[in-house]
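Lab notebook, bench 4. We co-purified these components, and the gel suggests they stay together. Before we commit to crystallization screens, I want a quick structural picture of the whole thing.
Request: model the full complex, all chains together.
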Amino acid sequence: MNRTTTIGWRAVALLLGAITATVLSVRTGAQGGGGRAPDIAGEWRLDQGEDPGQPSLSDYLGLAFNEAGRLRADTTPESIWGTPEYQCRPHSAPHQWRGVGGTRILKELDPISRDILGFRLQFMRSLDRPIFLDNREHPPAYAPHSWSGFSTAQWEGHTLKVTTTHLKDGFLKRGGPQTSDMLTMTEYITRHDDIMTIVQVVDDPIYLDEPYVLSITYTYDPTAGPATENCTGSAFAENGGTDRHHVPHFLPGQNSGIGEFLKTEDWIPVEASRGGVKTIYPEYRAVLAGTTTTAALTVPVSRSANDVAKRIADQSPRDGQVHVLPVQGNVYMLVADGTNITASVGRDGIAVVNTGSAQMSDKVLTALSELARAAVTPPVPNACFGANCPSAFGSPAWSSPFFNALVTAPRAPQGMRYVINTSAAPEHVGGNAKLAAAATFRRAGGAGGFGGATRDLGATATIVAHEGVLASLSTPPGKGTPAPAAAWPSETFFDEFHKLSEYVNGEPLILYRASAANTDGDSFVFFRHSEVIAAGNLLSTVSYPLIDTEKGGTIQGVIDGLNHILDLAVAEYRAQGGTWIVPGRGRLCDTADVASYRNMLVMIRDRVRDLKKKGMTLEQVRAARPTLDFDGRYGSATGAWTTDMFVSAVYRSL
Amino acid sequence: MMTRVVNRTFRSGARVSACVALLVLAATIPLDAQRGRGGAAGPAASPRQAAPIDLTGYWVSPIIEDWKYRMVIPNKGVFDGIPLSAEGRKVGMAWDPIADEKAGEQCRAYGAAGIMRLPGRLHITWQDDSTLRVDTDTGTQTRIFAFRPQSAAEPSWQGQSLAQWNVPGRSLKVVTTNLKAGYVRRNGAPYSSRAVVTEYWELHTLPNKEEWLTVTTKVEDAAYFTRPYLTSSDFKKLPNSVGWSPTACSTK
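Here is the predicted assembly.
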C-alpha cells in the first residue's frame, strides 16, 4: 500500500515537473508571448498585390497631407536624387517594405544562451537595418540620424513590435511625397503560416495630418531575397550642367508634371489626387457622389503621438547641463545648454571650437577635464614583460608599463591649448576668457616685431578667429561695450583659410572663412584627420540659420559656406556617415544632413527671390509664406530668431 | 525502519514537489487561458470566452493603399497587382456592370474575397458564443464566422467561414469556401466559385493608443489566378456607431 502510494506520488511529481518545465520552456522561448512566435527570419518575396509598381509623379492618393506636405512634394522633384550627396541615397525606411525586390531577415543570436538579440533587415537599395531586442535605450536626440534609423523591438504575442527613431529626412513613397527627419516609425511584424504581414505606422506631423498606417504582405520563399543594386552615380546633379551645387526644385505652382498621370488614369478625381485626410475615409464617397463638399465633411481623424516640438528642442537641450557625445577620433561634441562646443582632447591638451555661454564655463571645464583624464590614461593591456619594456618616459626600464601604471599616478592631463571661435555670437565666445585661462602652457606675446622682446602672458590658450570676430569683441568706444580683453582672439586671420601652426592631438586644424554668411566674420573648422567639421552657425538642426544683415550676413553666404563644407566632406557609404559635421545647435550631422539643410535654403532663397522679382514687398513676401513646408521643422513664431526675422533677412540680402 | 523513514521522507518530498509543481504550473498558465478572456471559470471555454483578442465594435477603413482601385472604380482592364491568368483576364474584360444589375448580381464585388477592400465600416458582434458576426455598411453584407464546421449550404456571396483562434499568437484565422463567383476589384477582376479565401485577423494598439485591426487576405483560385492574391486591409476602431451608413450593393 505504502509502496504503491509512494510510486504514485513520484509519478505525479515527475509528471507535473515535466509539464511545468515544458510550459516554462515554451513561455521563455516566446519572449513575452504565449508560445514560441513563428520564426520570421529568412527570405521573403513581395508580390506587390497592393499599390503595384512605382507610383506616378504627384500621385498623393491616400496620403493625409497637410499644406506643408503637399507643397514640399510639389516642389521636390525626383531628380533631387541626382545631387552628388544623394546619388547613393538608399530607399528611405518608410518606403523600404514597399520597394521592389524581396526582403531578407537575419537573426542575431547570443552565442551562449542562444537567445535572439536582434534582427537585421535587408532590402534592395538599402543599408542593413538592425533591430535590437536586448532592451537597450534609444540614443539621445542630439545623436545623428541615419537612413535606417535606430530600431528596438519587443514581442507582443507573436507579433514583433518595432519602434524606430533617428531617421533622416527622405521620402514616404516614390512620386514626390517627402518625410521630415522627425518622423517616428512603428512596425508590427507577424508571421501567419507562410505569410508575413507588416503593419507600418509612420508618424510625421510635419507633413501629415494623421499617422500613415499601411500594411504589407510578404510570402516566405527560400529562393527570393533582396535584389542587389550598385551605386554608380555621376558627379553632378541632373539639370545642373557642371554645377555640383545645383539643387533641382520647382518653384511653388510651377511643377507642370502635377496631375500628368491623370491623363492616363482618368477615372481618378483631381482633388483626391492631391491627398488630404478627408479623402481617405469612406465618408469621401459622398463628395465623389456630389452630395456634399470636402470642406463640409467630418471624418474621424487620428491624432499624432509624436511630440515634434519636444523632440526638436531635445536636440539642443537648454537644461543647464553639458552632454558629451564622442564623434570621431579625438573629437567630441559637447552640448552645453543649447549650444554646441566641438573639442579635440588628447595628449597634446585640449582645443575647443566655440566656448558656450559664460554661465556654463565651469561645467564645460569639468566635462573637458574628465575627457582629458581619460585621454591620457587609457586602459593599457600588459603586452610587455621584463627589463626592456619601455618606462613611462619611453626608455627601457625595470618595470613594465602595466606595473608602472599600477604603482604610480598617471601623468596629469594637459590643459587648454587652443580656443577657436567660428563667430562673435555670444553663445560662441561667452566662455572664452575662462576656458582660455584653463591652460598649462605659458604663452608669450606683445613682441615688437620679429626678434623683438616678448612678455610672458602666463598660462593661457591661444584664441583663434577671423579678424571680424576680434573687431566685434573689441568694439570701439561709443559703439557698444567691448568684451573683456581676455576673451579677444589673440591670433586672427583675414584670408580664405587659416591653418594652425602645429598639429593638435595628431591632426591639422584648418579654419575656413565663410564670407558674408551669418555675419561677415564667420568661419568653420576642419579637423582633417578625425574627419570632423565644426560648422558654427552655418548649420543648425533646430532653427533656420541666423543671418545678421546689419553685420554683413546674407543667405547666399550661408549657402556658399554649406557648399564649401559639402566639398570637403566625404560620406562613408551610401550617403551616410564619413565626415561628421557639428552644427552650432542641434544634433550631429553628416553630409546628407548638410545637403538637406542646404537644399532647403536654396529652395527658400529662390522662392523669395522670385517673389521679390515680381515686385512684392517684404510684407507681401511674408504673407506668401515661402517657408511654409519647412516651418514645422525649423520655424518659430516666438523667441530670438523667428521665421519672420529669417524671411526678412533673406529678402534684404537678395 | 530505515526503509520506512526513507519512504516516508521521499513520499513527503514527492508530495511537496507535486504541490510546488502544481503551484508553479498554475502561476505559469496565463489567466486568459485558464478562464477565457472573460474570466469565467468552469468547463471548456467557448470560442467567445477563449478569444485572445476582442474584435467586437465598430471599425472604419481608411483607404491608404490602392486608393484608385478601392475608393473609385477603375477602368475596365485595370487589373494591376492582381495575378489574373489569361482566362481570368478574359473574364474580367467581359465585365458588364449593367448586365450585373439586370441579373440582380450587383453584389458581385461585395463577396468575401473583395468586401474587406471596399471603403466602409464594420460592425463586429458575437451572434452567439460560437459565432462571430461581421456586418458591413457598404453593401449591407453579413459575414458569419463559425468556430465549428457547418453543414453544407448553397453558395453565397459570403460563403461559409470556419474560424479558429491562434491563442498564443493573438490572432484569428478564417477560411471561407462555398462562394458564389464575384469580383476582387469593382471593375470586374473575377474570382470563381472555387476560390478559397484565407484570412488572418490581428489587432494592434498604436502609439497614439488607437486600436487597429489588420486583415490579411489570401485568395486562392486555380480557375482565374496564377498564384495566390495577397492583400492586407486596415481598420481603425471607433468609439461608437457614428458614421455607420448601410448602403445597398452598387455597380457604380
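The longest strand of chain A covers residues 184-192. Worth comparing against the SEC data before the next meeting. Chain A touches chain B through 75 residues (CB under 8 Å).
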